[in-house]
Automatic annotation (TrEMBL):
Protein keywords: Heme, Iron, Membrane, Metal-binding, Monooxygenase, Oxidoreductase, Transmembrane, Transmembrane helix
Major localization listed first in the record, in broad terms: membrane
Protein family according to the UniProt entry: Belongs to the cytochrome P450 family.
GO CC field: membrane
Native source organism of the sequence: Mycena sanguinolenta
Xref: Pfam families: p450
GO molecular function: heme binding; iron ion binding; monooxygenase activity; oxidoreductase activity, acting on paired donors, with incorporation or reduction of molecular oxygen
Compartments reported by the entry: Membrane
Keyword Protein biosynthesis: no
Cofactor(s) required for function per UniProt: heme
Name of the protein this chain belongs to: Cytochrome P450 4F1
Pathway recorded for this protein: Secondary metabolite biosynthesis; terpenoid biosynthesis
């Protein structure tokens, strides 16, 4: 009897897997789309798609059927800007697949990155005021001071080196800087990780993000399909995540309570608390008188979104800065031009930047924001090496997807008059940011090169692209684009 009890769910699981791997793919409409052949039975196209320079070949009319992790994972890959835009804008139809959402939620809770539908709308409505241009401006000083601390730390390292050439792990240092900045800007908390890396909360976030990123995607996704009763005993990853989450809930939970007390004391005394960090702004926006009670979010949601800012904002920012420095090191002539432009501004300010007054910091920031070559270098680096390669969506109902290019069929026929195709419910769409940013048909033959000057004379097609940050997709697009630039979408 016990054996039957144990075996029947296993048998059901076995049959389900056979259906997913052997039967269902045969009926997938994606198999009728143009696309590269699969060479092995368990093979996939991910290596090809994730390889930066090959992911942008757009010779199948902008859409193809590819295989994700294995034979059970057919995906639509679209390189057609109109289709892409349709998919990211229609968040009511296209959601993130439950596998991605479960993985993110198990780590940082259900914040904006993984929430869907009304929950997502509610969270985003409360969070967006915190990202207004005025509030972002008040964070300039934090970034500026951390920049100075980093410079000093590097200078100390260089001068204390006994060898001729000092070795600096730029990526690791910049990661500490972004943690520090988001800690202060996000919840008025000092990780102080540029000075040393011993802060308990800093270690908890760092260990949690590192261990999950280092795990194989296939293994993590496969484990999601195993019913709770049959999950293997907690391994090193699960134990680390549990330990880190305990620290985060204890410390960040306390910070939320402290902020709430400050806000309520300020209200009672008639001297409102004026913290400018994202946590304070989120709490204020959540308590705003014009917000209906059902639109407010819970303390847990607030904590999940603070975690989300740490997760979504730290590695992305530090990686893009690291790559920018790498590209400059590889292109000394461009580095020289940028340096000359920066020095032209520096002359107007005191030599010792740590002596700048608050007003001077802001005028320096305004001056830097207006430098055309700096702007070009930043956009070009973000275009060429986007920190997030791609993202996934799943159709929650049948849909007709519009296209910019004529529709190609698998046998090679091109229907010049057809500018849409039908995608059934359940289709997974692979949205490749990098493929768009590097498409030679759009950006020109030098699309894979670092050429900041291209921004002075963009191809016409690029200018027609429907994305709202500098014609590139690096921050995604639509109502789920990266929060700091999507004020336009107040859904
Ligand atoms: C170079 C820096 C950054 C890049 C390239 C970047 C890129 C992106 C991309 C591509 C997405 C869409 C993800 C998806 O659809 O799966 C996203 C979402 C998001 N980003 Fe960023 N991001 C950056 C910095 C930041 C920072 C500094 C923050 C906040 C402190 C942030 C907060 C978020 C949030 C909350 C979302 C989820 C938005 C939603 O689904 O409503 N990001 N980011």
């Amino acid at each position: 009897m016990v054996l039957i009890y144990l075996l029947s769910p296993l048998a059901a699981l076995f049959l389900y897997l056979c259906y997913r791997v052997l039967v269902a793919p045969r009926f997938s409409v994606l198999r009728n789309l143009p696309g590269p052949p699969v060479l092995e039975w368990f093979g996939n196209h991910l290596q090809h798609v994730l390889k930066s320079m090959s992911s942008s070949s757009n010779d199948m009319g902008g859409r193809s059927g590819i295989r994700g992790l294995g034979p059970w994972d057919d995906r639509l890959l679209t390189l057609d800007p109109v289709s892409f835009s349709h998919i990211v804008k229609n968040t009511a139809i296209y959601e993130k697949p439950w596998q991605s959402r479960t993985l993110i939620t198990s780590l940082i809770g259900c914040g904006m990155l993984s929430a869907e539908g009304l929950v997502h709308k509610r969270q985003r409505r409360v969070a967006l005021p915190a990202f207004s241009a005025q509030n972002m401006r008040s964070l300039v000083e934090i970034s500026f001071n951390k920049g100075i601390q980093l410079r000093d730390a590097w200078m100390d390292l260089i001068s204390s080196e006994t060898e001729l050439a000092a070795r600096i792990d730029v990526c690791q240092w910049l990661s500490r800087v972004t943690f520090d900045v988001i800690g202060l800007a996000g919840f008025d908390y000092s990780f102080n990780s540029i000075k040393d890396e011993t802060n308990e909360l800093f270690i908890a976030y760092r260990d949690m993000f590192e261990i999950v990123i280092s795990q194989s995607t296939v293994f993590r996704t496969a484990s999601l399909h195993i019913p709770a009763d049959y999950q293997p005993a907690p391994d090193e990853t699960v134990r680390t995540v549990d330990r880190c989450q305990e620290v985060i809930h204890r410390i960040a939970g306390r910070l939320i309570q402290e902020k709430k007390e400050k806000l309520s004391e300020g209200e009672k005394s008639g001297d409102p608390y004026d913290g400018r960090d994202l946590l304070t702004l989120l709490l204020k926006s959540n308590a705003a008188a014009d917000l209906e009670p059902e639109q407010r979010i819970s303390d847990d949601d607030i904590l999940n979104n603070i975690n989300t800012f740490m997760f979504a904002g730290s590695d992305t920012s530090s990686l893009s800065m690291t790559w920018t420095l790498y590209l400059l090191a590889q292109n000394p002539d461009i580095q020289e031009r940028l340096r000359a432009e920066l020095l032209s501004v520096a002359q107007e300010f005191p030599r010792d930047l740590s002596e700048l007054t608050e007003d001077q910091v802001h005028s320096l920031h305004t001056a830097l924001s207006g430098l055309p070559f700096l702007h070009n270098v930043t956009r070009e680096s973000l275009r060429l090496i986007p920190p997030l390669h791609s993202t996934l969506r799943i159709a929650t109902q049948d849909d007709e997807i519009p296209t910019m290019y004529p529709v190609h069929d698998r046998d090679g026929t091109v229907n010049e008059n057809r500018r849409s195709f039908i995608m059934p419910k359940g289709t997974v769409v692979h949205l490749s940011v990098e493929a768009f940013n590097l498409d030679k048909d759009v950006w020109g033959e030098d699309a894979w090169e670092f050429n900041p000057d291209r921004w002075d004379n963009l191809p016409e097609l690029v200018q027609q692209y429907p994305w709202h940050f500098s014609n590139i997709l690096t921050f995604s697009a639509g109502p789920r684009a990266s929060t700091h630039l999507s004020l336009k979408y107040r859904n």
